[in-house]
């Protein structure tokens, strides 16, 4: 019987249990951060347990960290969480890329960057955007803190095998349209729960032609469609990306040979299949309070069909029939595990170069990791952003979720390269509009979104 | 973990779809390093007005529903962030059971780790439960997998392993450590490219 890539990786990791019931799965890699780990370490301590495999766990600090004056955390509770992770890592022997470390950054950015993330792995982290790592042809998903504790203690996790869904993405992406628009387009069409209970694999010529960074953007937001796992079959692009990184396998050619077994035999192996043609796709912008509430930039916002729509329009202060070009942008955020990588910053910088951001707009540029920040500075991207009036910051999750000092003020519309436009996500009363880095850069210049396909920026 | 079998308690209906974990417990309350104390911040942005006063229009603040232990709600409950704090907040507030049309996978797994029963019922049945008056009790009978209210009786599904864990209040890690030999054997067979 034909199998999906997911089936093959899953089967190799089952320790006990039958399909259809919770099975005990081996975890190759757990990534940790300061927000969802303190209670897990505390649980180990209370029960006199150790971390079973310190070599299969890696921690960093990202959610709470300030992006200016990073060693001076003013919020006492944030400081406590950061200190607690430092102490826990020391006590339990877990590797840590701490504050200011060369390897520090957003957990889903540094995993791939360090070569920790590899094809064929089962990867978990106490964060829903762990789906990002599926871009390498791995099974990667977010877990809760009790599960973090369980993985620390046993290096395994109980999971019921999900169904599989293949999303066939095909066609040439039009100019000005990006991976972010593909995933936003899929979620706008299918809703925020279409993937619940599924492991999604993206495949097709569009995917094959994508860089690893684009694939990561795509898989990152699978969770916004309800799928806790999004993935792409590993290929030469994947292997080339992993090669030479800090924690890449030393016997690299042998590893590649092993990784090459992870592919979907044929489409019939999927429980469900969806087709998505990108050849006429437009740039997307979210208008409402979940990522499914998004429209192509040249289309009006939809009519109110239910209470949720009504509440969303009230919250964002917009009306049906308006378009994204009419949203008055007061804040701009470049960054996050969705679009905080070097290629994202390059695209944004190419749009913004030689321009100045619109009057009254605050713009933060937050690289996803310290390495990305340094590389961007070598390329002079920081100068382009600063010359345009943007603030060039230290790495972290920043204004994607407003747990740290970076927040969007109440009532202000923010053009954001992040992943969630929930009520209050970027700060109490903040109004988030998700879009690609190029769209956000253009919005920064104009003070409103424009159709970057048509207008000279 | 605390065991749960059968409860008869009053309820609160919040029949909105897609209630995400940012609504259940906003991020400013995730900075604690404990598992308790989150109940007062559950549904914070809906429950409190700017300035911190209780929002009288939000049903959780209904003085007649303060003892409710069952939450009846919409579809795709607990979507978004993986924060287990959402389950801790629901429990800490005093809820023992949530009845929704469906859950995000991560929220559901988190509920099973905390003895917090997350039941799935279709909309028509939830609408009947949502009509329960503040003093009317709903019975959740886990051994028989039934929700009862007045003369109504609704059956629900639950995985036998989770059911066994709930009824016996078992800790996952203890269960897993029983497979130590299998885990060791697995590790011996794993490929190593270093």
Automatic annotation (TrEMBL), chain B:
GO terms for cellular component: 3-isopropylmalate dehydratase complex. One of its GO terms (biological process) is L-leucine biosynthetic process. It catalyses: (2R,3S)-3-isopropylmalate = (2S)-2-isopropylmalate. Pathway: Amino-acid biosynthesis; L-leucine biosynthesis; L-leucine from 3-methyl-2-oxobutanoate: step 2/4. Keywords: Amino-acid biosynthesis, Branched-chain amino acid biosynthesis, Leucine biosynthesis, Lyase. GO terms for molecular function: 3-isopropylmalate dehydratase activity. InterPro entries: 3-IsopropMal_deHydase_ssu, Aconitase/3IPM_dehydase_swvl, AconitaseA/IPMdHydase_ssu_swvl, IPMI_Swivel, LeuD. Residues 1-123 form the Aconitase A/isopropylmalate dehydratase small subunit swivel domain. Its EC number is 4.2.1.33. Catalyzes the isomerization between 2-isopropylmalate and 3-isopropylmalate, via the formation of 2-isopropylmaleate. NCBIfam families: leuD (TIGR00171), PRK01641.1 (NF002458). Heterodimer of LeuC and LeuD. Belongs to the LeuD family. LeuD type 1 subfamily. This is 3-isopropylmalate dehydratase small subunit. It comes from Companilactobacillus versmoldensis DSM 14857 = KCTC 3814.
């Amino acid at each position: 019987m034909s199998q999906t890539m997911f089936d093959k990786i899953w089967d190799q990791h089952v320790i006990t249990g039958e399909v259809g019931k919770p099975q005990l799965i081996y975890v190759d890699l757990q990534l940790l951060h300061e927000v969802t780990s303190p209670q897990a370490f505390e649980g180990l301590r209370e029960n006199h347990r150790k971390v079973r495999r310190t070599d299969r766990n890696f921690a960093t600090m990202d959610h709470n960290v300030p992006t200016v004056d990073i060693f001076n955390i003013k919020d006492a509770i944030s400081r406590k969480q950061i200190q607690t992770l430092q102490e826990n890592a020391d006590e339990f022997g877990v590797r840590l890329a701490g504050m200011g470390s060369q390897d520090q950054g957003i957990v889903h950015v540094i995993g791939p960057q360090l070569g920790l993330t590899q094809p064929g792995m089962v990867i978990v982290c106490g964060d829903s955007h762990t789906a990002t790592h599926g871009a390498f042809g791995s099974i990667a998903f977010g877990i809760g803190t009790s599960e973090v504790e369980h993985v620390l203690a046993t290096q395994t996790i109980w999971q019921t095998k999900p169904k599989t869904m293949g999303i066939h993405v095909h066609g040439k992406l039009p100019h000005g349209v990006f991976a972010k628009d593909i995933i936003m387009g899929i979620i706008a069409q299918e809703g925020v729960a279409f993937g619940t209970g599924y492991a999604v694999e993206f495949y097709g010529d569009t995917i094959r032609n994508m860089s690893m960074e684009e694939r990561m953007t795509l898989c990152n937001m699978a969770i916004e469609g309800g799928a806790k796992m999004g993935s792409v079959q590993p290929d030469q692009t994947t292997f080339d990306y992993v090669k030479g990184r800090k924690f890449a396998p030393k016997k690299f050619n042998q590893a590649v040979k092993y990784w090459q077994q992870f592919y979907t035999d044929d489409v019939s192996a999927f429980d469900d299949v969806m087709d998505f043609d990108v050849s006429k796709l437009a740039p997307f912008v979210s208008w409402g309070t979940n990522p499914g509430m998004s429209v192509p930039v040249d289309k009006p916002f939809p009519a109110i069909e239910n209470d949720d729509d009504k509440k969303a329009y009230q919250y964002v202060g917009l009306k049906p029939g308006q378009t994204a070009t009419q949203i008055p942008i007061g804040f701009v955020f470049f960054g996050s595990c969705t679009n905080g990588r070097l290629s994202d910053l390059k695209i944004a910088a190419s749009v913004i170069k030689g321009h100045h951001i619109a009057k009254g707009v605050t713009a933060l540029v937050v690289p996803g990791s310290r390495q990305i920040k340094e590389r961007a500075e070598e390329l002079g991207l920081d100068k382009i952003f600063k010359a345009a009036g943007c603030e060039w910051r230290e790495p972290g999750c920043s204004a994607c979720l407003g747990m740290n000092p970076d927040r969007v003020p109440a009532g202000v519309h923010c053009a954001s390269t992040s992943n969630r436009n929930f009520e209050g996500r970027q700060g109490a009363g903040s109004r988030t509009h998700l879009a690609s880095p190029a769209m956000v850069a253009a919005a920064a210049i104009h003070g409103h979104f424009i159709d970057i396909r048509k207008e000279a920026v | 973990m605390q065991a749960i079998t059968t409860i008869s308690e009053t309820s609160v209906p919040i029949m909105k779809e897609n209630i995400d974990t940012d609504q259940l417990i906003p991020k400013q309350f995730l900075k604690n390093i404990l598992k308790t104390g989150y109940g007062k911040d559950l549904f914070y942005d809906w429950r409190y007005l700017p300035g911190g006063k209780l929002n009288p229009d939000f049903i959780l603040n209904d003085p007649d529903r303060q003892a409710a232990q069952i939450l009846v709600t919409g579809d795709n409950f607990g979507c978004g962030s993986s924060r287990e704090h959402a389950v801790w907040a629901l429990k800490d507030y005093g809820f023992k059971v949530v009845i929704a049309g469906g859950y995000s996978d991560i929220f559901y797994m988190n509920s099973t780790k905390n003895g917090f029963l997350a039941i799935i019922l279709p909309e028509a049945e939830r609408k009947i439960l949502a009509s329960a008056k503040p003093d009317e009790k709903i019975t959740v009978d886990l051994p028989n997998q039934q929700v009862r209210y007045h003369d109504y009786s609704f059956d629900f599904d639950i995985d036998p392993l989770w059911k066994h864990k709930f009824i016996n209040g078992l800790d996952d890690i203890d269960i897993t450590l029983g497979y130590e030999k299998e885990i060791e054997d697995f590790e011996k067979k794993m490929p190593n490219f270093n």
